[in-house]
Amino acid sequence: MLDVDFFRRWLTNAAAAVDREAARLTELDSPIGDADHGGNLRRGLSAVVAALEKEAPATVGGVLTLAGRELISAVGGASGPLYGTLLRRTGKALGDAVEVDEAAFAAALRTGVDAVAALGGAAPGDKTMLDALVPGVDALGTSFDAALAAARQGAVATVPLRARKGRASYLGERSVGHQDPGATSSALLFEALAQTAQGTPGAGRA
Length: 206
What we know:
The protein is mainly alpha-helical and 206 residues long. 66% of the residues lie in helices and 2% in strands.
């Protein structure tokens, strides 16, 4: 079972992963975006960690909805609303439970991913964060490690794609040949999830 502490550690690990990779995320964003993805997301997740240190939500849904609100308020551009929506909708789907099983989490995360798709009007293949989120959540029922592998593969697979949504879509054919920064940061969420599961007895072995 995944409890409140699991989700707090997931977000803390995600913040550390983004902090480590912030320069690379910005480098990826530079030719096809506004060259601010790494810095924006690092600022947002730092705010999430600070908020969780101040508050102590008693439910798993409370942890994720708080994180989503912080991301929306702290991060400019598109990534704040998109990642904020992902976490808020996932949290709302999990509700007031103090712990959930992996199947319930996978179903809730899919609700969050669907909300991101609706907000951005995007689909897999459009060269967005969904190219990592969708395969990641599809594989989550197998294991957290499988979800990480699928998300990473999805991020790399954006390189030959032409962007059809977001800032990169304005570049047309010039967006081809670049890895999408949003898909790359989404894969970091699954990396943090797999890392968190490694320290959780019984987790990630479905």
